TrEMBL record:
The active site is at H441 (proton acceptor). It catalyses: N(6)-[(R)-dihydrolipoyl]-L-lysyl-[protein] + NAD(+) = N(6)-[(R)-lipoyl]-L-lysyl-[protein] + NADH + H(+). Residues 343-452 form the Pyridine nucleotide-disulphide oxidoreductase dimerisation domain. NCBIfam families: lipoamide_DH (TIGR01350). This is Dihydrolipoyl dehydrogenase. Keywords: Cytoplasm, Disulfide bond, FAD, Flavoprotein, NAD, Nucleotide-binding, Oxidoreductase, Redox-active center. The lineage of its organism: Bacteria, Pseudomonadati, Bacteroidota, Flavobacteriia, Flavobacteriales. Its EC number is 1.8.1.4. Disulfide bonds join C40-C45. Binds 1 FAD per subunit. Its cofactor is FAD. It comes from the Bacteria. Belongs to the class-I pyridine nucleotide-disulfide oxidoreductase family.
């Protein structure tokens, strides 16, 4: 069976690539060994947000009095909360099935292995292998939870994100190792639902990729909500022989033992590069990722790679953008390269965190003379009406030309606001153009305009 394009893996990298390929007139097939939609729809972006929504609703009901309503005590059955999240994931995966049909993309279920001569062999669940060929093979096999040698996951007491999304019962206590977006989102969910959560982070700050002020603010907010946070600390070993887990944690003041029902390891991801035929074809890898050029071509012509298996930001929107760029280039279109400096990053804990561009430290390190503006959400009318005043907006401009170097936000709803900064930066908008762009009142987005005004000494509401 011969195709123009075969895509391996149906995550936000693979399925989006396949749709764009089909739109461009390529005869396209997609191969998936598990569920359509990949990690993002089934075990990542979507089910985590469903859990966080349940936690937020639970929190709101328990704080009804804050909104002038009668006191209510919300209750829940943990399996129902999990079931809702799984239902949302299942619905989204079904949606991908529909999109594949609509775009006349052949869906091949099974485990794919690339072979020399632009061939792919697919082994189905009964062990039957079928060979396919294509002019272009795009590998988008994604990633899995990274396992550290001293933190082996048994799936029961020491778990990864898949188990954290589908636990049969709520743990009374949980240690979360790693405070990147994934770790912090789970810590927030379980803490809000009543689990005693301790976060252990190796770096000096939680959400370490964020601007330091944002990290510090989030740490304070999460601690206030009841999460225990240990930074500059690392789990050296775990003991699962007793009832729960005992973690031996190295801290600046010596080693301590933490005990909990469950330990969630959220220390990053490992790309799925094994047993997919890379060595047989001669496709080069480095540090566990597939090497590609700016058009996602691997070291072997006709084979491409996108998404979590290449060394770019491991985010769903990055995977999708890479896939679109890759097939448009194959089509011979005039394509713009992806600007990896303008990728938004979001963490959906409460308060939410969203950012794009340089942090203050990075801007200084790059030698920019900068103007920094900040606006607290406590001064925002909409945030006050919403009862969510925790957080602030921080913007960084180049003092010389007004270029918007970075935007860092913490607060309710900021993940939906960061796109303004992405678009403005893409259009090379200056600080004054932001100040002169009239934002609707009352919205939390006004805080971005006010933060820009603060950078130029023109802020109105503080
Ligand atoms: C808990 C969690 C929360 C996250 N939240 C967010 C978020 O809020 N926002 C965000 O942008 N990103 C988030 N991410 C990251 C995001 O999920 C990934 O960046 C994204 O899924 C990567 O897409 P991909 O297409 O490269 O790979 P994946 O989504 O991993 O898909 C790869 C697919 O390939 C299939 N596959 C693998 N090997 C084979 C084979 N040999 N044959 C056939 N099929 C194969 C797999 O079964 C899988 O379906 C989150 C991740 C996790 C774990």
């Amino acid at each position: 069976m011969n195709y123009d394009i075969i895509v391996i893996g149906s995550g936000p990298g693979g399925y989006v690539t396949a749709i764009r390929a089909a739109q461009l007139g390529f005869k396209t097939a997609i191969i998936e060994k598990e569920n359509l939609g990949g990690i993002c729809l089934n075990w990542g972006c979507i089910p985590t947000k469903a859990l966080l929504k349940s936690a937020q609703v639970f929190h709101y009901i328990n704080h009804a009095e804050d909104y002038g309503l009668n006191k209510v005590e919300a209750s829940f059955e943990f399996p129902n909360v999990i079931q809702r999240s799984r239902g949302v994931a299942g619905k989204m995966s079904k949606g991908i099935e529909f999109l594949m049909k609509k775009n006349k993309i052949d869906v091949i279920l099974g485990t794919a292995k690339v072979q020399p001569g632009k061939k792919v062999s697919v082994t189905d669940k009964d062990g039957k292998a079928t060979e396919y060929s294509a002019s272009h093979i795009i590998i988008a096999t994604g990633a899995r939870s990274r396992e550290l040698p001293n933190l082996p996951q048994d799936g029961k007491k020491v778990i990864g994100y898949r188990q954290a999304l589908s636990l049969p019962e709520q743990p009374k206590s949980m240690i979360v190792v790693g405070s990147g977006a994934i770790g912090v989102e789970f810590a927030d969910f379980y803490n809000t639902m009543g689990t005693k959560v301790t976060v252990v982070e190796f770096m000096p700050n939680i959400v370490p990729v964020e601007d330091e002020e944002i990290s510090k603010h989030l740490e304070k907010s999460l601690k206030k909500s009841g999460i225990e946070i240990m930074t500059n600390a690392s789990v050296e070993s775990v003991d699962t022989s007793g009832e729960g887990v005992k973690a031996n944690v190295k801290t600046a003041n010596g080693n301590i033992t933490l005990e909990a029902d469950i330990l969630l390891s959220a220390v990053g991801i490992a790309a799925n590069i094994e047993n997919i035929g890379l060595e047989e074809v001669g496709i080069q890898t480095d540090k566990g990722r597939v090497l590609v050029n700016e058009w996602y071509e691997t070291s072997v012509p006709g084979y491409y790679a996108i998404g979590d298996i290449i060394p770019t930001q491991a985010l769903a929107h990055v995977a999708s953008a890479e896939g679109i760029t890759c097939v448009e280039k194959i089509k011979g279109m005039h394509v713009e390269k992806i600007d990896y400096g303008n990728i938004p990053g979001c963490t959906y804990c409460h308060p939410e965190v969203a950012s794009v561009g340089l942090t203050e430290k990075q801007a200084k390190e790059k030698g920019y003379e900068i103007k920094v503006g900040k606006f607290p959400l406590s001064a925002s009318g909409k945030a006050t009406a919403n009862g969510n005043t925790d957080g602030f907006i921080k913007v960084i401009f180049d003092a010389k030309y007004g270029e918007w170097l970075g935007c860092h936000m913490i607060g309710e709803g900021v993940t939906d606001m960061v796109a303004e900064a992405v678009v403005a930066r893409k259009l090379e908008t200056t600080g004054h153009e932001i100040i002169k762009s009239i934002h609707p009142h009352p919205t939390v987005s006004e805080a971005i305009m006010e933060a820009a005004a603060a950078a130029y000494g023109e802020v109105i509401h503080i």
